[in-house]
Automatic annotation (TrEMBL):
Pfam families, per database record: ADK, Dpy-30
Record keywords: Kinase, Nucleotide-binding, Transferase
Compositionally biased tracts (Low complexity): 596-607
Protein's recorded name: Adenylate kinase
GO cellular component: cytoplasm
Region (Disordered): 596-627
Molecular function via GO: AMP kinase activity; ATP binding
Originating organism: Paramecium tetraurelia
Record bears the keyword Nucleotide-binding: yes
UniProt signal peptide: none
Length: 723
């Protein structure tokens, strides 16, 4: 995990009562689960007196941890395990088995706790438990959960159902669990905690779904089959809280479910991500590479830590410090914000402000193309809303029609009055009133609703926006970015303003260079400049409260804008920039850069409809000007090339590649186990086989078992176990 930013807001009752310094081993401290466990067990930010010592393996040393070790070195791992009070494994079950046997057969005086965070897929081949009573419906009604036919038909598994679990592909993990649950050593407390699908913070299993909707506004998220399979889930912070609770309370029950209280299906999960983070689109697929999304398991939240087994009491007086007890759906926006924070993603929220013909739309579109963020412009916004099947869209249609009807009535009255005053000369046609030339304008209160709607859409919340030439007045700004209590609306407020600080003469000169734009006649431009100046001073005073960049040289406007945006360091956005792209800027705003108009006219004459492909990397690097941005761009392009190469692979090649990667991973993960077997098992097993071959006993299996048991007793007596 690149960012350790979990906020510790829980009451520190347990920690304050536990003044003894603990030594804790956590496997893979930089993984999603490992980093949450470190954050849960650390207390160095609460006390300077004997804070917990947290050690483990991982890519780097997270905040709150004390030391990194090489877990592949069984000698070092063994020494650390025997030295720790709490040992937690959640990923490498081979190392977990080695550590557990070391604790089971080793000699030590202090009490220790061993926790194995298991895998929910161990239940995936067990058929759902059919409902036999009204108990499930009673619990659902208490938890205010929607009862579908699916959840009415079945009931949840509890920890007591472990004997009926059927495992087809996790036999080794099953045997490890059974061994841990059967441990009777007094000095060793052992627990197996089976979580649901783990989500939250920077995401792991759900990362690809988040990444897909983040990078592609038009993406359709895949739903495997009908999507009615039940998926138990747990936020990683809540999982860490349950693990810590088990190590503190030491409950008698050793097998624990760690799941939240939501009834979740695959379809509901994917649809929630699509609607609340993406564009709401999904599609049905026949293949799904992520096994967690295909499991069909319904687990009951653990009641082991509670005073009784009633779910209603458990929710009111839960001893688990829940953060996401209600589940994924009701906390999706908080989960989205966590994803942005833990992945270090930033949003670019800009207002481009200036007088008529200053070049606002041109720069806005440049920045939109460069950072792949929405360019919000009034004309396109209104057209999009009118085409959308929303109440606001209907309101816009009705309001525009009403405003136009009123304007037509007033203009027609003026036209008829003028017509009566002026007699038409003989031989000339009668003047005809043309209502099509009348363009209605929305009142501010409707326009503000439209802009707020756009700023609250998922793409702007994920990536940011460039607001093109709006607001135009201080009153519009306050209506858009402040609530009824005059407080700034945090999720839509801008982070900076780019202001084209041109004089009136400069604006008029730029307007003269614009080709075939009737709105830019000298008279109209002068009138619009006057209106702009009336409201500009008060609006600029408000903008000064933000970071503001004044630009008075149009030739370097883009470079200056980039330097302003990256003033606090490079901007990291989860976007895959194309190496080759077409640079096309469609001008749909009323103010247009003269440079753009001239370039477009020349291109139209020389190339007609031909589009010129330009290297996106060349454009960006030539305009960048900030050296530290180059490394980030090159990294993005390399990732893009790798992504393209992967997309070109056939299904067979992908499968072969996946098998090879899986084999390499298994080889890497099995190295400690192979070393362990070579050091501690193979020599004695080889000796036993030699003796077996010499004596040819009648029952070779019993002879072999007796020989190994005798050898084990000899080693234990000599104190050689675990070496």
């Amino acid at each position: 995990m690149s960012l350790q930013t979990r906020s510790i807001e829980r009451g520190s009752v347990d920690k304050s009562q536990n003044c003894q310094q603990l030594r804790i081993f956590i496997e893979d401290m930089t993984s999603l689960i490992g980093s949450a466990l470190v954050e849960e067990f650390r207390n160095d930010h609460e006390t300077d007196i004997n804070p917990n010592i947290i050690v483990g393996n991982g890519e780097n040393l997270p905040r709150g941890a004390t030391k990194l070790i090489n877990a592949a070195d069984t000698t070092e791992l063994g020494q650390v395990i025997l030295d720790c009070d709490i040992i937690i494994f959640h990923q490498n079950y081979c190392q977990a088995e080695y550590a557990y046997k070391l604790l089971k057969y080793g000699n030590y005086n202090s009490e220790k706790t061993f926790v194995l965070v298991s895998n929910p897929l161990t239940w995936s081949t067990t058929a759902l438990k059919e409902k036999k009573s009204e108990e499930t419906a009673f619990r659902q009604s208490i938890m205010n959960e929607d009862e579908t036919q699916l959840f009415k038909k079945y009931e949840r598994f509890t920890e007591n159902d472990l004997p009926i679990r059927r495992i087809n592909s996790f036999e080794r993990l099953k045997h490890l669990e059974q061994s841990i649950l059967g441990c009777e050593k007094k000095e060793l407390n052992t627990y197996v905690i089976t979580p649901g699908l783990v989500y939250g913070n920077g995401e792991d299993i759900l990362y690809e779904l988040f990444k897909t909707v983040w990078m592609n506004p038009d993406a359709e998220l895949p739903i495997h089959g009908e999507g009615n399979n039940i998926i138990p889930m747990i936020h990683v912070n809540d999982l860490a809280s349950i693990v810590r609770k088990a190590t503190i309370l030491n409950p008698q029950d050793k097998y624990i479910f760690a799941v939240d209280y939501e009834n979740m299906t695959q379809k509901k999960l994917v649809t929630t991500i699509a609607k609340c983070i993406g564009n709401g689109k999904t599609k049905t697929v026949t293949n799904c590479s992520e096994k967690m999304l295909k499991m069909n398991v319904w687990l009951r939240p653990t009641q082991i830590f509670d005073s009784n087994d009633q779910i209603n009491d458990a929710q009111k007086n839960s001893s688990v410090n829940w953060e996401f007890q209600e589940g994924f759906t009701k906390n999706i926006y908080k989960i989205r914000d966590q994803f942005k924070l833990y992945r270090g993603l930033d949003t670019i929220k800009l207002i481009v402000h200036g007088g008529p013909a200053a070049g606002k739309s041109y720069l806005s579109q440049q920045l939109s193309n460069y950072y792949r963020i929405p360019h919000i412009q009034i004309k396109k916004l209104i057209l999009d809303l009118i085409d959308s099947p929303t109440k606001l869209g209907e309101l816009l249609k009705t309001t525009l029609q009403q405003v136009k009807d009123q304007m037509v009535t007033e203009a027609l009255a003026v036209f008829e009055a003028e017509k009566k005053k002026k007699k038409v000369p003989k031989g000339q046609p009668e003047p005809v009133f043309d209502a099509s030339t009348i363009i209605p304008r929305l009142p501010d209160h409707i326009l503000i609703q439209a802009y707020k709607w756009r700023l609250e859409q998922n793409d702007t919340q994920n990536l940011g926006y460039v607001l093109d030439g709006f607001p135009k007045t201080l009153e519009q700004y306050e209506l858009l970015f402040q609530n009824e209590n005059n407080q700034v609306i945090e999720n839509i407020k801008p982070k900076g303003v780019i202001y084209f600080d041109y004089s009136d003469d400069q604006l008029k000169e730029k307007a003269r260079q614009i080709i075939d734009q009737p709105r830019y006649t000298e008279e109209q431009v002068s009138r619009r400049i006057v209106n702009f100046r009336k409201s500009n001073d008060s609006l600029l005073q408000q903008y000064e409260k933000f970071d503001i960049k004044r630009i008075n040289l149009s030739e370097s406007a883009f470079d200056q804008a980039l330097e302003f945006i990256t003033r606090n360091g490079p901007i990291l956005v989860l976007q895959e920039k194309k190496e080759e792209d077409y640079i096309e800027i469609e001008v749909i705003q009323e103010d247009v850069s003269p440079e753009l108009q001239t370039a477009q006219q020349q291109e139209s004459n020389q190339q007609q409809e031909k589009k010129i492909p330009i290297s996106q990397s060349q454009v960006q690097q030539s305009q960048l000007g900030v050296k530290k941005k180059t490394d980030q761009l090159n990294k993005s392009l390399n990732e893009s090339r790798v992504s393209k190469e992967k997309q070109k692979l056939t299904d067979e090649q992908k499968f072969e590649q996946f098998k090879q990667q899986e084999k390499e991973q298994l080889d890497l993960r099995s190295q400690p186990l192979r070393q362990y077997l070579a050091d501690n098992v193979v020599p004695y097993l080889a000796e036993a086989l030699v003796v077996l071959c010499e004596k040819h006993p009648e029952n070779p299996i019993n002879f072999l078992a007796d020989f190994l048991e005798q050898k084990g007793n000899e080693l234990q007596a000599n104190g050689q176990i675990g070496q």
